[in-house]
Amino acid sequence: MSRTILRGRVLSFHRVPEGPDDAASYLYLEDGAVSIEDGKVVAVGDFAATERQGAEIIDHRPHLILPGFIDLHVHYVQSQMMAAYAGSLLEWLNTYTFIEEQKFSQQGHADAVAVDFYDALIRHGTTTAVAYCSSHPRSVDAFFAEAQRRNMLMIGGKVMMDRNAPEGLCDTAQSSYDDSKALLEKWHGVGRGLYAISPRFAITSTPAQMEAAQALVAEHKQAYVQTHLSENDAEISYSMELYPGSADYTGIYEDFGLLGPKTLLGHCIHLNHREAGVLADTGAVAVFCPTSNLFLGSGLFDRERLIKHGVRTGIATDIGGGTSVSMLRTLDEGYKVLQLRGQRLNPFASFHMATRGNAQALGLEETIGSIAPGCAADFVVLDAYATPTMRMRQATVSSLAEELFLLQTLGDDRSVVEVYVAGARAKSTLGGL
Ligand code: GUN
Ligand code: ZN
């Protein structure tokens, strides 16, 4: 069995850092060695104390080796429509998004965009993402087939939507049930792929389709569930017009049994007290999508309030409402959103969120999001000197916390030196770079 050792500055989290001085919350090795066999971490420790006999050594000094980034909410089918000029969510969906997603009825298109999407993830250091495909089953096949080719742990599913959208995107309650079930059975657990049952949001699903989603969730407890919740005022009002019997927007999903610890809810910006309590009680995850929330003018995520309620949270790009594939850019914008809320996010807490925190939101913290024995060898290697501006600023940086903050504030894909997926180099082996 061949062993590879990555040498460099290693950073991995044990738990949520409570402040910039909470050194017990993470492992940091100035000259570390990460030993990999069969795509998994087998040992982590100081390089000098590591058994190196027969191992291939890859030296990444002076760069930082972290667990690969995890993106909890992204629409791979919107990869080609980022930066679409729209006033707010519903206009953006109707004017651009629903037009763009219709292209995924073509297998060739889905296959080509999937390749570009995965290339973009890897360039930016993201090794796992939870994605919405389009309503077309072939878009799901393209998504999982490409994940399997790259040996990536990816989660995704067919969007279920049977109203308030163009005919070319609409399924029916029955066909969405049948197609989702078939796709789940085809792809869940194949390679590292995992399925997410994906009713788009209340506006585009009839009660009959919500019932279909409810049946799928009840029949497939191993699968994730993803949808959108409380992103925009007009969206909330329209949802309540469509579901007048529910207590509030969260109540719609609650009434159809869609909330649980494997449920990921994009946005969750304008929740009332009851809704926050329901999320806490069910264990559903509120996913913060800062670049999207700023771009679409949706509002400011109230992280502290949700955490005080006991709600589990995570962070994501929400491409193509989001404006960058980069989790570094996402952390930066997240920091600014929270500043506007009067909430500080320390740099360790940021990097925890994008790695182990998001893994915990998925219940996958034993598998991804940490550099620890038994975890997948999915890593990102970061360079805080990647651009002239970063080099200039780095000259005055004197702590790891400052370096991380510099990376998140000024970094992007240029700071991503290398990416490993299941122990294999993934960025430097991309074509055409
Ligand atoms: N709500 C329903 N669909 C979408 C989508 O594609 N993007 C965002 N940001 N919100 C949504
Ligand atoms: Zn979304």
TrEMBL record:
It is an enzyme of class 3 (hydrolase). Residues 65-423 form the Amidohydrolase-related domain. Pathway: Purine metabolism; guanine degradation; xanthine from guanine: step 1/1. Its EC number is 3.5.4.3. GO terms for biological process: guanine catabolic process. Pfam families: Amidohydro_1 (PF01979). This is Guanine deaminase. It comes from Devosia aurantiaca. The gene is guaD.
